[in-house]
Design brief:
By secondary structure, the chain is an alpha/beta fold. A hairpin with a 4-residue loop joins β7 and β8. Bound molecules: zinc ion. The site of zinc ion has 4 residues, from loops.
């Protein structure tokens, strides 16, 4: 893609809580993916598609990923239902330059765990408590227009230790009413791709209706959008540009 084309966004959602639970359906009648798609439409300048777990191939094919600049991933209760092949496909796409924004309980999703190489475990509690997310990097594009801190009146608590590799950038740190802290917005580079984790977004709270959380998610996606897409899996044996002592040396396997 060129820098002038609209980023192509694929929002992937498990889409089970919204179907099975009335409270969640009330908050997200079109699914979490539908609400997030509205956030992108509101901002403008994106081409947005959605995919869900129970679609054929979970709505994820190599062709579709090849036409995706950044993917968002929300999953929770059915991580195990996601085919390993799908997780590998997403991982490969990221290594070749696709962006990935992993949301909330996606911390234990197969694609995230594969890309991080860790378990993604953490401590958690559902107690309707306040979350305060501190902005550690007001200079970062993901946090453009985000104040010193963002408060959510009620959220699920996620606490340290969060089993992730050291983030390349730690952008927000959460404090919870019950006393825990958590690395809430983190970035990593994997191959040619960018990965962002954004913590808030428990399904029984209206978090994805919060204007500031919507701003952070949309800006995370924009930042993670790949500007380079190429097959990074090639590992060619190559001729030298300048004379070398033994150019025809046999490679013994
Ligand atoms: Zn949750």
């Amino acid at each position: 893609m060129t820098n002038t084309a609209n980023p192509r966004v694929l929002i992937w959602n498990e889409y089970l809580h919204e179907i099975e639970n009335e409270e969640v359906a009330g908050l997200y009648p079109k699914g979490i993916h539908g609400t997030l798609a509205e956030a992108f439409a509101e901002r403008g300048g994106f081409e947005v598609q959605t995919a869900t777990l129970r679609e054929a191939n979970h709505g994820v094919t190599p062709e579709r990923l090849a036409e995706t600049d950044v993917m968002l991933w929300w999953g929770h209760k059915a991580h195990a239902e996601v085919a390993n092949q799908t997780a590998i496909m997403v991982q490969e796409a990221v290594l070749s330059g696709m962006g990935l924004v992993v949301l909330h309980s996606g911390h234990m999703s197969k694609p995230f765990k594969r890309l991080m190489g860790t378990h993604g475990t953490l401590r958690w509690r559902e107690a309707d408590e306040k979350e305060r997310l501190w902005n550690l990097r007001p200079d970062h594009p993901i946090l453009e227009g985000v104040p010193e801190y963002v408060e959510l009146a009620q959220e699920e608590m996620y606490g340290e230790r969060f089993d992730i590799p050291e983030p390349d950038e730690l952008l927000m740190l959460s404090w919870f009413q019950g006393g825990e802290v958590f690395r809430s917005v983190c970035t990593w580079r994997r191959g040619l791709g960018r990965v962002v984790y954004v913590r808030p977004g428990h399904e029984t709270y209206p978090t994805y209706h919060d204007p500031m959380i919507r701003r952070i998610v949309v800006q995370a996606a924009a930042w993670a959008t790949a500007r380079v897409r190429q097959d990074a899996s090639r590992c060619p044996n190559t001729q030298s540009f300048e004379p070398v002592p033994n150019p025809t040396k046999e490679h013994i396997l």
